[in-house]
Amino acid sequence: MSVSLTQSAAKHVESMIAKRGNGVGLRLGTKKSGCTGFAYVVDYADDINDNDLVFESFGVKIIVEPDCMKMVDGMEIDYLSNNVLNQGFEFKNPNIKDMCGCGESFSV
Distance from CA of residue 34 to its chain's centroid? Predict the structure, then answer.
């Protein structure tokens, strides 16, 4: 089992945690949403719970909720920053079977 960050994503997370002044990494989860089933929930983590799964890429921790691991196992998170209006995380998830037209939700 694994979830990883690209170097670009790791640098972005490090930068955002530094701006916040605290945090231990990036928290990843999923929620029921959209027309195809699920959406990613991404936030900066201030702590690690006993049952969380923790992975590390380029010195940055990715904290994953155990219930969603089967949906995100093997995923790589990238950060794209083409310009001010077009920037954000890109999820490369090998488990996706279908995705809605707008790209907001997925099914596995």
Answer: 18
Query: Distance between CA atoms of 46 and 44, rounded to whole angstroms?
Result: 7
Q: Where are the beta strands (DSSP E) in the chain?
A: 3-5, 25-33, 37-45, 53-57, 60-64, 75-81, 87-92, 98-99, 106-107
Which pTM value belongs to this model? 0.85
Count of beta carbons in the 10 Å neighbourhood of residue 19: 9
The one-character DSSP state at 93 is -
Among the CATH numbers 3.60.15.10, 2.60.300.12, 3.30.830.10, 3.10.120.10, which is that of 3-99? 2.60.300.12
CA–CA separation, 4 vs 28, rounded Å? Answer: 11
pLDDT in tens, 44-100: 999 999 999 999 999 999 999 899 999 899 999 999 987 666 788 888 988 776 665
